[in-house]
């Protein structure tokens, strides 16, 4: 790792949402103030949206870190659930064991809990991340919960955070009553070029750079060109650029190192990606935000990865997910990027405590597939060796905690591929702690 070379005490560009590294641009500061307003106002209900990687989750973690002890919080991150499952998750967050309760009992228990907390002088806050995945029935339950009140005030504060399609849902006519209860709505945009430079310098300073130059001054414009100021993309490109400099034993990242990183990541400029995303949205009829995840960081051969590959398109490779020697899921790899991690926003979700929120990614083009660690906490291993960037070979077994990813290259001629799983590639839930 490059920490010794750059004389840093910790990695400055991890993708995990660490409040310690939060940089408050004007937009981020405003979004945080809106979150804080849920505590100030008795009818606090705030909606925060932002593009993928814009920093919503880091803001939430920072906000939670600063809350007083008299605030009771339920934080929901798994949002692809039914209305009953949602109520069960909320009650579980509050310390109940609700999974055998029917809906009437769930609502009664939650209502009583909220009134009890109010009587005890405590405030109750519900935070829902990835809220764009909530179904209409769940959103209606949230509306009903937001209406629970005493004779003087509401007893539940609510923050919904999600990608831009959350706004599209909330604008639907059938959710008019819900949107009328929302006090504040704010869209978190990408960083400006000046803010992006300050963001990079801030993270380096927190990591121990002090006043030392780590990135040469002419690199910032190039970084902005390829990231568009999206914090997650900035982290990925800066980290990869520092690795390139480290490989060259250079203590300062130069334009050449950034270009080398761009080549490794196989990125196109951000404005080109945006145009391709818009074109993909027009072609597929899907919303812009639904196609963006597939074109945000990797576009191969000058064209966007297929959002929905044609039914007759043969996969270039396959990925089999296994645990304890049993196949539990499978993914076909077409040109583009596949992100693997613990939360529902990933292309392949592994709900395990050993897997980071965004653990790793696989970039696939016509020639090969590349595995990249996304600064995960527990790492990515092949043959017991930790890897950060690896050209996958047919038969490679990648270890992620208790799970294994088996890579099968379909490009090899004359190779028949079969698997023993008939399951849909749904989220994989950890059965029990190790």
What does this structure look like?
The chain is an alpha/beta fold. The protein has helices spanning 3-6, 26-40, 56-65, 83-93, 103-119, 136-146, 165-170, 176-181, 193-206, 219-227, 231-247, 255-265, 270-284, 288-295, and strands at 45-50, 71-76, 123-128, 157-162, 184-188, 317-323, 326-333, 336-341, 348-351, 360-364, 369-373, 381-382, 385-386, 389-391, 397-400, 403-409, 428-429. The strands form three sheets. It has a six-stranded antiparallel sheet with strand order 7-6-16-15-12-13, with no helix packed on it. A hairpin with a 2-residue loop joins strand 12 and strand 13 (385-386). The radius of gyration is 23 Å and the shape is globular. The protein starts with a helix and ends in a 5-residue tail after the last strand. Residues 288-311 and 414-434 have low confidence and may be disordered.
